[in-house]
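R.M. (postdoc): so does anyone remember the format we settled on? I'll just put the C-alpha cells first.
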C-alpha cells in the first residue's frame, strides 16, 4: 500500500491558490482514476484507488498547511506504512512555475507543511515531489496564498498533469526511476528555453 499526500489549505477561499498545488495534483490524479478524495478520516479527505496491483491512499490534510504532519503521522500509523510507502506533494517557491523536482529525502527548504511532517515523523527520509510556483516581489505569504494567474496556469496546469503521470510511475517503479525520468525532463526543458533565449539575444545583437 502507498500513501500519496497533497498539501494545501482547506476551504473555498484557498481553492486555486499557489499553496494548494498539492491538493490540485491529488484531485487530478483521483479524477483520472474515477474517484474523489472526500472521505473524512484522520484529519484528512481520503480516496482509495488501485494503480496497477498497488493499493493507494490519496490524502488531502485538512489541518491547514503548517500542521499537515498531524494527519500524515496518523495515516502512517493507521495503515502501518513504512517511510518508503509515502510520497508528499508540495508547492515550491524556489522553482519556476511549472517545474517538477522529485527527491528521496532532504530538508523542508522553507516549506512549512513539509517541515511539520519532518518534525512529527522525526525524519527527512521520505519521498517528496515539489511543484514550482516561483517567487514574487510582493512577499512570500501574499504570493503563496494568492490565486494562480492565467499566465502561470499555462505552466502550472501542464505541470500538474505531468505530476499525475509521475505519481503513477512512482507507485509502480519507485523514486529513483521517477527522479531519473522527470527531473531530467524538467532540466532539459529549462535548458531548451535558455538556448532559445540565447539565440534570440544573439540575433538582436
Amino acid at each position: 500500500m502507498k500513501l500519496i499526500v497533497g498539501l494545501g489549505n482547506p476551504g473555498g477561499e484557498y481553492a486555486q491558490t499557489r499553496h494548494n498545488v498539492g491538493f490540485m495534483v491529488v484531485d487530478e490524479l483521483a479524477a483520472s482514476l474515477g474517484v474523489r478524495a472526500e472521505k473524512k478520516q484522520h484529519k484528512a479527505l481520503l480516496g482509495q484507488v488501485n494503480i496497477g496491483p498497488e493499493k493507494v491512499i490519496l490524502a488531502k490534510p485538512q489541518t491547514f498547511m503548517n500542521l499537515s504532519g498531524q494527519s500524515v503521522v496518523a495515516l502512517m500509523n493507521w495503515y502501518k506504512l513504512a517511510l518508503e510507502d509515502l510520497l508528499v506533494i508540495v508547492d515550491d517557491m524556489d522553482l519556476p512555475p511549472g517545474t517538477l523536482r522529485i527527491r528521496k529525502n532532504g530538508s523542508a527548504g522553507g516549506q512549512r507543511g513539509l517541515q511539520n511532517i519532518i518534525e512529527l515523523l522525526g525524519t527527512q527520509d521520505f519521498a517528496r515531489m515539489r511543484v514550482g510556483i516561483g517567487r514574487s516581489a510582493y512577499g512570500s505569504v501574499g504570493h503563496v496564498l494568492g490565486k494562480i494567474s492565467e499566465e502561470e496556469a499555462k505552466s502550472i496546469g501542464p505541470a500538474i498533469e505531468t505530476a499525475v503521470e509521475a505519481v503513477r510511475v512512482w507507485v509502480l517503479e519507485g523514486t529513483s526511476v521517477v527522479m531519473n525520468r522527470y527531473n531530467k525532463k524538467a532540466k532539459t526543458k529549462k535548458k531548451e528555453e535558455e538556448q532559445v533565449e540565447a539565440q534570440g539575444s544573439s540575433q538582436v545583437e
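R.M.: ...and that's the designed sequence above, right after the C-alpha cells. Also worth knowing: Confidence is low (pLDDT under 50) at residues 188-194, 199-205. The CA atoms of residues 42 and 196 lie 48 Å apart.
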